[in-house]
Amino acid sequence: MLLAASAEPVKLKVGDQAPAFSLPSSTGKTVSLADFKGKKKVVLAFYPKAFTGGCTKEMSGLRDHKADFDEVSAQVLGVSLDSLDTQTRFADSLKLTFPLLADPQGRAATAYGVKGLLWANRTTFVIGEDGRIIAIFEGKDAIDPVAVLAACRSKKF
User: Fold this and answer.
1) Which CATH architecture has domain 22-153?
2) Catalytically annotated residues
3) Rounded distance, CA 82 to CA 133, Å?
């Protein structure tokens, strides 16, 4: 029996066009990357699981820097494989000022190359107004919003 070779996971890099997505959000609206093209940078923060320590710290840090992200015209979006109901409860519990997107089938996580076996790997993509990736932060580097803000402020892109 011949088995098809498994597809190599996507490995996006700085300068690549960010994959399009359209996902339900904790605000009750569907959010698409195209909503921001030509208007704002996007901070797309994939995180493993709602209501866990690292993810709570990460989302709270992004929330606490809302004014800074507004100043650099950047829209923050959190994404996990959690259900829409879980995302909504998590957003409410943290009083988040930005939408959390539900990706329970992992389509966006797969397109961005961050889908693990059970959850998305912690990875934040900073996407320019032109739809290209400006910066990528992985693992513990994605928890602190300071470097993400610096990438948003960068004039080289």
Assistant:
1) 3-Layer(aba) Sandwich (3.40)
2) 55
3) 24
Threshold 0.85, pTM exceeds: yes
Q: pLDDT tens for residues 133-156?
A: 999 999 988 888 999 999 999 865
Contact yes or no for 33/21 (Cβ under 8 A): yes
Measured between alpha carbons, how far is 77 from 125 in angstroms, rounded to an integer?
10
CA separation for the pair 24, 138 (Å, rounded): 24
pLDDT of 8 reads 58
Between 53-64 and 145-153, two packed helices, what is the crossing angle to 10 degrees?
Answer: 40
Alpha-carbon span 34 to 113, nearest angstrom:
19
Q: Which of 116, 118, 114, 122 is nearest to 47 (CA)?
A: 122
- Give which of 29, 31, 53, 56 is closest to 44, Cα–Cα: 31
User: How does pLDDT run across 87-133, given as a tens digit for each residue?
Assistant: 999 999 999 999 999 999 999 999 999 998 899 999 999 999 999 99
The domain limits of the chain are 22-153
How is residue 135 written in tokens? 């910066």
